[in-house]
Amino acid sequence: MKFHIVVQVLPRRGILDPQGKAISDALRTLGFPQVDDVHVGRHIVIETAAESAAAARASVQSMCDRLLANPVTEDFVISSVDAA
Amino acid sequence: MKFHIVVQVLPRRGILDPQGKAISDALRTLGFPQVDDVHVGRHIVIETAAESAAAARASVQSMCDRLLANPVTEDFVISSVDAA
Question: Does B29 contact chain A (CB < 8 Å)?
């Protein structure tokens, strides 16, 4: 079966997020002074074959541990696992 | 009121996604040959003040149009607007 899995990888809270800081500064300059804070991460959509939704989730967990997220500075969340 | 708004910015379908291609190639090499395709976008969390959820959504829509997404190559989705 084919699955469509969505993962969010975000900088861990408290760790410097220069991209988020750059965007919040730019937004304030562009006329959005009400912006308090911005965090930027990656939104990754993986299309993969697996025997079941549980197997798809386990394999994506392992992909995140090994390649997609930096375990020192980032957290990841598997936000959805849908049969395609 | 404070709002916590989540936006996903993804490369438009059919437009070259070199980061997604690099990740899918790396995953296959790392022992995940079942991966068909990967798309990578940005996951942006904005903390902002607004008078209502509708006003917060409208202001984030305008931020996306003006700064956060490239209208030629990317699509964005405001996936949640929560009172903080």
Answer: no
Compute the distance between CA of residue A76 and CA of residue A3 in angstroms, rounded to an integer: 19
Complex ipTM: 0.90
- How remote is the C-alpha of B46 from its chain's centroid? 12
Q: In 3-state terms, what secondary structure has residue A69?
A: coil
Domains in chain B: ranges and CATH:
2-83 (3.30.1280.10)
CA distance B49 to chain A (A): 5
Tell me the chain B residues in contact with residue A49 when contact means C-beta distances shorter than 8 Å: 34, 36
Q: What is the pLDDT of residues B22-57, one digit of tens each?
A: 999 999 999 999 999 999 999 999 999 999 999 999
Report CB contact under 8 Å: A47, B34.
no
Residue A22's SS3 state is helix
Contact A46 B38 (CB under 8 A): yes
End-to-end alpha carbon distance in chain A? 8
